[in-house]
Amino acid sequence: MTVRVLLADDHAMLRSGMRAIFETQPDLDCVAEVADGRAAVAEVARLRPDVAVLDIRMPKLDGLAATEQILADKANRTKVVVLTTYDSDEYVYRALRAGASGFLLKSLPPEELISAIRVAARGDALIDPSVTQRLIARFAAGIAPPEPPAALALLTAREREVLLLVAAAYSNAEIAASLHVGDETVKTHVSRVLAKLGLRDRVHAVAYAHAHGLVDNSHLRP
Q1: Cβ pair 33, 19 in contact under 8 A
Q2: What integer pLDDT is reported at residue 176 of this predicted model?
Q3: Sheet bearing 51-55, strands edge to edge
Q4: What is the mean pLDDT of residues 113-123?
Q5: What residues does 81 pair with on adjacent strands?
Q6: Where would you tag: which of 22, 35, 171, 199 has the fewest CB atoms within 10 A of its CB?
Q7: How far apart are CA 101 and CA 126, in angstroms?
Q8: By mean pLDDT, which of 43-47, 143-147, 161-165, 203-207 is the weakest?
Q9: Homologous superfamily (CATH) for 3-127
Q10: Alpha carbon distance, N-terminus to C-terminus of the chain
Q11: SS3 of 28, please?
């Protein structure tokens, strides 16, 4: 499958550099480049790319506001990966609340950005490892656990186990090893959890579990 990508960054040299990197990958097709958030929203609506890679600091409309507008259109299947030079919890929190499927620092190696685009295109999600656990702890600390939502009753015991392991940042392979099941079985469980709880992807499953008090933060993985 070829992943159609839109790039939005106000620095022409950075866009050119990223586009050159994508062109080395046979499964990535950069369908457009834009220099501001307003143009990103318009081009996503016109082209419907699989993934939009948005810088946070852009003129006319910043990347976070553009993410919110793009993902407010429920008919739009485009996934958003947000890039930034700033390691800010507020940026990450707002991007995830908007529905972004990835949040990465520009200092990461190019292969990690490529991997994040592929992950997003598959319907999964990725946050820069340097901010993941801090963000989860901060997110959970600021929210008093409410009554368990009724949707949790739809999960089987095994699906609930899978949700808690996802919330603890386990990969599918690690979940499979922990539960002594195959990778495909884990993928099926994760898909069912997301569908039953109305969640967009794994990142939002993590936020959901912590927001609803399902996870003890003292047991977060280092």
Answers
A1: yes
A2: 92
A3: 28-34, 3-8, 51-55, 79-84, 102-105, 126-127
A4: 86
A5: 53, 102
A6: 171
A7: 6
A8: 143-147
A9: Response regulator (3.40.50.2300)
A10: 35
A11: strand
Query: Would you state the structure tokens that stand for residue 22, as one six-digit string?
Result: 């994508």
Token pair for residue 153? 């009753």
Answer yes or no: CATH 3.40.50.720 is held by domain 144-219.
no
Residue 35 near residue 12 (C-beta atoms within 8 A): yes
Paired sense of beta strands 102-105 and 126-127, if any:
parallel
What sign does the dihedral 11-55-122-136 (CA atoms) show?
positive
What average pLDDT does range 184-213 have in this prediction? 84
DSSP string computed for 42-74 = HHHHHH--SEEEEESS-SSS-HHHHHHHHHH-T
DSSP element (H, E) containing 211: helix 202-211
**DSSP string computed for 150-208:** GGGGGS-HHHHHHHHHHHTT--HHHHHHHHT--HHHHHHHHHHHHHHHT-SSHHHHHHH
- Token pair of 220 as six digits: 């977060």
Closest of 136, 134, 127 to residue 108, by C-alpha: 127
What one-letter code names the amino acid at 157? A
From residue 119, give the alpha-carbon distance in Å to each of 97, 122, 139: 19, 5, 23
* Cα radius of gyration (the chain): 18
Could you tell me the residue ranges of all domains in the chain?
3-127, 144-219
The model's pTM? 0.65
Whole-angstrom distance, CA of residue 62 vs CA of residue 35:
11
Whole-angstrom Cα distance, residue 153 to residue 158?
12
Q: Which residues contact 144 (CB under 8 A, 6 or more apart)?
A: none
Amino acid in position 90: E
